[in-house]
């Protein structure tokens, strides 16, 4: 088995066939809608909130609202629909979540996208929730995760999920690999490649994105969408206020399984940290789009799918060589 991560891979260019990078099409159809770029901010409390979800949906970007204020989720769906926008929410797998799904059905608040968001998605309890949601809300596009093996992808797809989310432990705020010894941390890109051999439905690569070029690498190894936490948590529009230390600006970022998120030191697999303040999120997303357009041109193509077939080399820890 080839084992590598984002920093170990370089994609090999093909002859360019477009006159300008602006001719490259970065759009992606994911579920019922098409988005400008294959990027989704992580469904974490320090990355997404109502205002940002509205802005993203209005501006052609995908989003997934987090599940950490469960009582607000139905109102959120109603509010997004009242604005003519799509609703995309997260659920867990505990007993109360079944009641929540029943309430959505009873009140006809049907989100366009639902994500089952648990640490270890290859589980009979996730499969039970997939069956329940597919029975009660068959028109919602159902994403399930997180997974890290081809067996898991096969089983979760067969259970009825419309897409899977791949990545156990590669996140910046993650301590799963340290606390449990398990995961795809350190070989996330190779794990994505393995999962793509089994996948018959779209995959979201989740965690470990440190540079914009990692988005193109994720697409090369099978991702339809790339979930990003730390790199998108430091913006003006990100939840929380700006913190200044020694003249430098930061924002808070914490793991969804951190003590801070859970309010108790129980099954903690995440930590909290500061990430550098990065200004407006629109500028970062636009730069990601421009860099992806450039990636498509280096791939010798015109659209995102053309990145999928490029050759690559494994050059261990190559990313900062030459800088
Ligand atoms: N992508 C990643 O690598 C990781 C992401 N996270 C994120 O942290 C948040 C909290 O996750 P999670 O703890 O799953 O949420 P929950 O607290 O909702 O736990 C999910 C359910 O599964 C049960 N469970 C059994 N085994 C496991 C296991 N190994 N890991 C997790 N749950 C298990 C839990 O019971 P009980 O609590 O009693 O065990 C609980 O009932 C989520 O947003 C998740 O995405 C967390 C860790 C890793
Ligand atoms: N192991 C843990 N993983 C976590 C936790 N909270 C979130 N996450 C995962 O990280 C990604 C974001 O990764 P990044 O590298 O872009 O910062 C996120 O989407 C989750 O899958 C956690 O507490 N523990």
Distinctive features:
7-stranded parallel β-sheet; binds NADPH dihydro-nicotinamide-adenine-dinucleotide phosphate; 14 strands; alpha/beta; 18% strand; binds ligand LQESDW3C; globular; 323 residues; TIM Barrel; 3-stranded antiparallel β-sheet
What layout of secondary structure does this protein have?
Blueprint (H helix, E strand, L loop, with lengths): L8 E3 L16 E3 L2 E3 L3 E3 L8 H9 L14 H10 L5 E4 L3 H12 L6 E5 L6 H13 L4 E7 L2 H10 L3 E4 L9 H5 L7 H11 L4 E4 L6 H8 L4 E4 L14 E3 L2 E7 L4 H4 L9 E5 L4 H18 L13 E3 L9
Parallel strand pairs: 4-10, 5-6, 6-7, 7-8, 8-9, 9-10
Antiparallel strand pairs: 1-14, 2-3, 11-12, 12-13
The protein binds NADPH dihydro-nicotinamide-adenine-dinucleotide phosphate (NDP) and the ligand Nc1nc2c(ncn2[C@@H]2O[C@H](COP(=O)(O)O)[C@@H](O)[C@H]2O)c(=O)[nH]1.
Q: What fraction of the residues are assigned to beta strands by DSSP?
A: 15-25%
Number of helices: 10
Top CATH class: Alpha Beta
Tally of distinct domains: 1
Read across the widest sheet, the strand sequence of neighbours is 4-10-9-8-7-6-5
Low-confidence stretches: none
Q: Look up the CATH topology.
A: TIM Barrel
| Helical content band | 25-40%
**Helices and strands: which structural class?**
alpha/beta
CATH architecture: Alpha-Beta Barrel
Structure ligands: NADPH dihydro-nicotinamide-adenine-dinucleotide phosphate, the ligand Nc1nc2c(ncn2[C@@H]2O[C@H](COP(=O)(O)O)[C@@H](O)[C@H]2O)c(=O)[nH]1
* Computed Rg: 19 Å
CATH superfamily: Aldolase class I
Keywords: NADP, Oxidoreductase
Catalytic activity: IMP + NH4(+) + NADP(+) = GMP + NADPH + 2 H(+)
EC number: 1.7.1.7
Function: Catalyzes the irreversible NADPH-dependent deamination of GMP to IMP. It functions in the conversion of nucleobase, nucleoside and nucleotide derivatives of G to A nucleotides, and in maintaining the intracellular balance of A and G nucleotides.
């Amino acid at each position: 088995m080839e084992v590598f991560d984002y920093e170990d891979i370089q994609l090999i260019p093909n002859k360019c066939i477009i006159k300008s990078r602006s001719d490259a099409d970065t759009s992606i159809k994911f579920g019922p809608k098409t988005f400008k770029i294959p990027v989704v901010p992580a469904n974490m409390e320090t990355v997404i909130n109502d205002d940002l979800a509205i802005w993203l949906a209005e501006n052609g970007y995908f989003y997934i609202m987090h599940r950490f204020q469960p009582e607000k989720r139905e109102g959120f769906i109603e509010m997004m629909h009242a604005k003519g926008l799509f609703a995309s929410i997260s659920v867990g797998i505990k007993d109360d979540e079944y009641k929540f799904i029943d309430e959505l059905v009873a009140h006809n608040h049907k989100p366009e996208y639902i994500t089952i968001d648990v640490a270890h998605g290859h589980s009979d309890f996730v499969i039970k929730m997939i069956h329940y949601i597919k029975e009660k809300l068959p028109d919602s596009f159902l994403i399930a995760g997180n997974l890290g093996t081809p067996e898991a992808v096969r089983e979760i797809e067969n259970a009825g999920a419309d897409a899977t989310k791949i990545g156990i432990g590669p996140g910046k705020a993650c301590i799963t690999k340290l606390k449990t010894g398990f995961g795809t941390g350190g070989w996330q890109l190779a794990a994505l490649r393995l999962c793509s051999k089994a996948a018959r439905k779209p995959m979201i690569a989740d965690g470990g994105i440190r540079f914009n070029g990692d988005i193109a690498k994720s697409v090369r190894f099978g991702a339809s969408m790339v979930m990003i936490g730390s790199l998108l948590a430091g913006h003006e529009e990100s939840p929380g206020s700006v913190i200044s230390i020694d003249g430098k600006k930061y924002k808070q970022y914490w793991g969804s399984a951190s003590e801070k998120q859970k309010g108790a030191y129980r099954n903690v697999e995440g930590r909290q940290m500061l990430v550098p303040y990065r200004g407006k999120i629109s500028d970062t997303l636009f730069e990601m789009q421009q860099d992806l357009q450039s990636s498509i041109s280096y791939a010798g193509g015109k659209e995102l799918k053309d990145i999928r077939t490029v050759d690559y080399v494994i050059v261990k820890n190559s990313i900062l060589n030459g800088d």
